[in-house]
C-alpha cells in the first residue's frame, strides 16, 4: 500500500491537470487541494513550494490538514518531475514502459512537445506568439506519432499522453470559440486548417485523448478555459 499523497493544484492550470490525469490513469488514491494563485497562502510558499507554483505534491508522512503539511512528508514540485515520480511510484500502471528504449521515447516526447507545441501554443493564446509556430509545433508532434498506434509511445497510455492532453483540451476550445489574445479569427482559422487531410493523424490522436475518462473528469469546458 502506497503512502498518502496530497496534490496541490489549481483547477484552471493545465500543469495541474497533467498530474490529476496521470493519477486517475494509475488508479492511485490522492487528495486534491486547491491553491488560490491570486492570493498565495503563506503556508504554501513556506512549506510546500517556495517557488509558489502548482502543481506540487506532499508524499508520505501522516494524513493531516493539507494547509498544515507534515514535515515528515516529501514535497515535490514541477509537473514533469511529478509525472516521472508517479510513474515510478506506480510501476504496474504502465505510465512508463518497462522497455528502456520506450522509456527514453516517452521522455523525449514530453520534452519535445513541451518545447515545440505547448510553449508556442500558450504563447499564441497570450498574444505573444505566432500562428505559424503553432502550426509548426503541431506538425512536429504529428511527426512523432506512429501510424496505426493509439498512444504517443508504444501500445499503452503513458505519461507522454498525460503530458500533452491538457494542451489538446485547450486547443479544442481555442479552435471552436476563437477565445484568446491573438487577432480575431486566428483560432477559428487554426481549427479549419486542422480539419484538412494534412493533419489527420494528429487530429485522430487528439480525439482519442479527449475521450479518455481521466481527461473528462478533470476538465470542465464551461469554466476551465484559462490562459496559462
Task: Give a quick set of tags describing it.
228 residues, alpha+beta, 4 strands, four-stranded mixed beta sheet
What's the short story on this structure?
By secondary structure, this protein is an alpha+beta fold.
Please, could you describe this protein's structure?
- This protein is of the alpha+beta class.
- The chain contains 10 helices and 4 strands.
- A 4-stranded mixed β-sheet has the order 2-1-3-4, with helices on one face.
- The longest helix is centred in the middle third of the chain and has 26 residues.
- It is globular and about 55 Å long.
- The model has no long low-confidence stretch (mean pLDDT 95).
Order of helices and strands: EHEHEEHHHHHHHH
**How many β-strand runs?**
4
Radius of gyration: 18 Å
**Overall 3D form:** globular
What is the CA-CA span between the terminal residues? 35 Å
Strands in their spatial order, largest beta sheet: 2-1-3-4
Beta-strand content estimate: 5-15%
Task: Indicate the topology.
Elements: E1 5-9, H1 14-25, E2 31-34, H2 42-48, E3 56-59, E4 74-77, H3 79-89, H4 100-125, H5 131-144, H6 159-177, H7 186-194, H8 200-210, H9 213-217, H10 221-224
Parallel strand pairs: 1-2
Antiparallel strand pairs: 1-3, 3-4
Amino acid at each position: 500500500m502506497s503512502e498518502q499523497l496530497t496534490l496541490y493544484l489549481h483547477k484552471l492550470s493545465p500543469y495541474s491537470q497533467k498530474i490529476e490525469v496521470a493519477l486517475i490513469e494509475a488508479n492511485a488514491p490522492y487528495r486534491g487541494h486547491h491553491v488560490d494563485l491570486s492570493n498565495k497562502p503563506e503556508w504554501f510558499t513556506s512549506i510546500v513550494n517556495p517557488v509558489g507554483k502548482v502543481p506540487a505534491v506532499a508524499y508520505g508522512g501522516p494524513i493531516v490538514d493539507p494547509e498544515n503539511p507534515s514535515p515528515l512528508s516529501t514535497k515535490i514540485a514541477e509537473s514533469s518531475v511529478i509525472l516521472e515520480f508517479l510513474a515510478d511510484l506506480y510501476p504496474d500502471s504502465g505510465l512508463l514502459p518497462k522497455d528502456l528504449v520506450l522509456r527514453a521515447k516517452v521522455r523525449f516526447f514530453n520534452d519535445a512537445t513541451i518545447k515545440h507545441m505547448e510553449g508556442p501554443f500558450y504563447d499564441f493564446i497570450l498574444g505573444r506568439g505566432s500562428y505559424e509556430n503553432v502550426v509548426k509545433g503541431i506538425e512536429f508532434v504529428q511527426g512523432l506519432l506512429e501510424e496505426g498506434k493509439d498512444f504517443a509511445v508504444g501500445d499503452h497510455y503513458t505519461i507522454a499522453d498525460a503530458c500533452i492532453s491538457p494542451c489538446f483540451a485547450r486547443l479544442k476550445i481555442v479552435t471552436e470559440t476563437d477565445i484568446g489574445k491573438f487577432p480575431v479569427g486566428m483560432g477559428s482559422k487554426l481549427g479549419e486548417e486542422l480539419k484538412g487531410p494534412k493533419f489527420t493523424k494528429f487530429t485522430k490522436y487528439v480525439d482519442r485523448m479527449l475521450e479518455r475518462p481521466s481527461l473528462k473528469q478533470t476538465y470542465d469546458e464551461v469554466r476551465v478555459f484559462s490562459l496559462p
